Amino acid sequence: MTARELPWFLRAVERLVAMSGVLAAVCLLALLLLMLGELGSRNLFGRSLHVSWEISAYGMAAIVFMAAGSALQYGVHVRVTILSEWLGPHGSRVLDGLVSALGLAVAGLLAVVMTRLAWGSYAGGVMSWSGFGIPLYLPQALAAFGANVFALQLVARLVRIFMNLAPDAHASTEQLGLEGQAE
Amino acid sequence: MIGPGLVVAVLLLGILFTGLWVSLSLFSVSIVALSIFKSLPIERILSQNVWNTLTSPELLSLPLFILMAEVLFLTRISDQLMRGLTPWAAMLPGRLAHINVLACTIFATVSGSSAATTMTIGRITLVELGARGYDRSLIAGTLAGAGTLGFLIPPSIVMIIYAVLADVSLLRLFLAGIIPGFLIALGFMAFTGARAVMRPELLPAEARTYSWRERFAALLHLAPVTLLMLSVLGSMYGGIASPTEAAAMGVLGSLLIAALSGSFSIANVCAAFLRASRTTSMLGLIVVGASFLALGMGYLGIPRAVASAIGGLDLSPMALVATLVVFYLVLGMFLEGMASLVLTLPITLPLITQAGFDPIWFGVFVVITIEMAQITPPVGFNLFIIQSLTKQSIGRIARDALPFLLIMIVAAFVLALVPDLALWLPDVVMTALR
Questions:
Q1: What is the DSSP string of B20-43?
Q2: What are the beta bridge partners of residue A135?
Q3: Across the interface, which of A72, A81, A178 has its CB nearest the CB of B73?
C-alpha cells in the first residue's frame, strides 16, 4: 500500500506528527542560538541574558514532547524486544497491538494532564519564575500539543496494526544516521 | 513495606518484558503502584513532576551534545583520526590493532554517546583494518570495548542523566570520569598489545614503517578534533562556559568542521537536527519517567525499606560493590544500559551513600557498569551497531568483546578499592576554579 492509498486519518495524523517533529527541531535550533547568544553576551559584554536560560528550558520541554510522536514513527523509543522475537510474526503482531493500546493509555493520560496543566496556568494567569513576564501557559501549551500528538501517533499505530501495515511508518527507512543504528 | 517494593519490581519487569516502550513503562508502573497503595492527586503530581524535571537547567546540555554527535557524524573526522593515528600506532606492539582504542578514546572527548563513538569510528576502521589484513575478531573486539568509552570520558550523555537524577554537579562528574576512562583505555591497549605479541598471526605480516617526518605531518589530521576538544572541555574548565554552553560551542565547532570538510549541506544539517530532536525526545521521556518512578517509590517508602533490609545483611563495602557489579551485569544483559540506570538509581543511590560511598564516585562506577551493558548479549547497543557494520552474529561479536568486558569488571573493583582515581581530579580542578 503506497502513501496515497492510506486512509485519510492515517495520512492526516502522520502529517501532523511530522510537522510537530519539525517544530521540535526548530526549538532545538532556537535552544542552540540562545545558548550561543548567552555565551557571547557574557564573555564579550560581561552580562548575562538571564532570560535565555529560562526560554531554553521551555524549549527543552517542547522538544521532548513535540518530537515524541516522530520518534515513535522512526522506531527511536527503546523497548525490550525479547518476547516479541520469541513469539514469531503472528504472535508478535498481536502483542504489538496490546502494547500499543497500553502505550496509548499512558500517553493519553500524559496528554490529559499536560493539557490540564497548561489550562490551569492560563486560567490562573501564572507567570514564569524569573520575572520576565512570560505567561507559563505558552510553553506548557507547546508541551501539551506535543503530548497530544504523541497519543494520536499511538492511535495511528494501532490502526496500522489492525490494517496489517508496518506499525512504524519510517522505522526501516532511516539507516544512515546515528539513531537508526542506536536501536 | 516489602509489599509495595515487590509489587513495583514484579510490575516493572513484567511490563518491560511485554515490550512497552521503556519511558511509558516507567510512568505506568509508578501510576499503578501509587493508585493501589496511596490516595494522592496523581494527575497533579504527574504533570508538575514532568514539567519541573524537563525544565531543569542541568538537562539542557543533553540535546546539544546529542546534536553535536549527529553533526560530527556528517564530517570526515573518523577518517582524519585514522590517518593521524596510523603512523604513531605503527610503532606499538600490535601496530594498527590499537587504532580503535586510540581513536575511540580521542573521539570520546568530543562525543557524549557510546553508540555514536562506536558507529563513527567503526564505519572507517572496520573497513580499513580489514582491508589491511588485521584479524576481524581482534578489530571487532577492540571496537566493541573502546566504543563504550564514549560514556565515561566527558562529555557524557549518561553522566548528564545521572547528574540530574542524583542531583550532583555535572562539571564535577565529568572530571571524575577522565582518569578512570584513560586507565581503562590503557588496559585495553595493554591487552591488545599482549595478544598481538602472543599471536602474531592476527596481524598482517608486512608492515609499513613511517619516518618521523611523516609521523609529525600526520598530526595535522588531528588538529580539528583537538581544537574541538579544547573548545568544549577547555571552555568548561577554563570557567567561561557551563556544560550547556560548552555543548553549544561544540555544535558550532562541529558545523564548522563539517563545512570545511565539504560535507555540509542544508539537507544534511536539517536531517541532523531532526534526528537529534527525536533522540532527545526518547531520552527526555525516559528521564521524566524515571523521575516520576523515583517519586512514586519515595512516596511508598521503597528505597528506605530496601536500604534497611540490605543494611541488615551487614555486607562489607566491597561485598556491596561486588553485589552491585553482578546485579548490573545481569540487568545489563537484558536491558539497555540507560534504562537499567534510571530504573535502579532510586534504590541503589541511597544504598551506596549510606554505605559511605561518594555520589560522584558512584556516578563513575555506575557509568562503567552501563558500559558493560553495551557489550553483554543478548541486548547490547554496541553489539548491535557492530553487527550492523560487519554482519557477524551477536554471539560472535560478544565473544570477541569478552576480554574487554573482563577488563571493565576489574576496573570497577579497582575503582572501589581506590576511590581517589575518580575523586582526586574533581577536587583539584574545582578548588583551582574557585
A1: --HHHHHHHHHHHHHHHH----HH
A2: A127
A3: A178
Q: Which residues of chain B are within 8 Å of residue A103 when distances are taken between CB atoms?
A: 20-21, 24
Contacts of B4 (CB under 8 A, 6+ apart): B33, B36, B37, B300, B301, B302
Cell triple for residue A99? 502494547
* Dihedral of alpha carbons B298, B302, B304, B310, sign: negative
Contacts of residue B342 in chain A, CB cutoff 8 Å? Answer: none
Run of H or E including B109:
none
Q: How far is CA B108 from the centre of its chain?
A: 9
Find the farthest-apart pair of alpha carbons in chain B and give their distance in angstroms, rounded: 75
pLDDT confidence of residue A177? 44
Q: How far apart are CA A156 and CA A147, in angstroms?
A: 14
Chain A residues inside the 8 Å CB shell of B73: 177-178
Q: A47-88, pLDDT tens digit by residue? A: 877 788 889 999 999 999 999 999 999 988 888 888 888 888
Residue A127 β-bridge partners: A135
CA distance B14 to B262: 49
Q: Judging by beta carbons within 10 Å of its beta carbon (0-12, 13-18, 19+), is residue B9 exposed, middle or buried? A: middle
The candidate with the shortest Cα–Cα distance to B189, out of B294, B279, B102, B79, is B102
Interchain pair B279, A71: CB under 8 A:
yes
Q: Which of B48, B50, B70 sits opposite A177 (nearest CB)?
A: B70
B246-267: burial string, b at 16+ Cβ within 10 Å, e else: bbbbbbbbbbbbbeeeebbeee
Q: How far apart are CA B365 and CA B368, in angstroms?
A: 5
DSSP three-state, residue A135: strand
| Single-letter residue type at A125 | G
- Alpha-carbon distance B110 to B128, whole Å? 23
Closest residue of chain B to A117, computed from CA coordinates = B47
Contact between B151 and B332 (Cβ < 8 Å) = no
Instruction: Assign A6 a pLDDT band (cuts: 50, 70, 90).
Output: confident
The complex's ipTM? Answer: 0.92
- Identify the CA nearest to B283 among candidates B116, B45, B171: B116
CA distance A103 to A100: 5
- Residue B55: DSSP 8-state: T
Grid cell, residue B377, equals: 548479549
* CA angle, B161 then B165 then B169, to 5°: 75
Three-state DSSP state, B391 = coil
Query: Among B20, B56, B113, whose Cβ lies nearest the Cβ of A103?
Result: B20
Contacts of B48 in chain A (CB under 8 A): 117
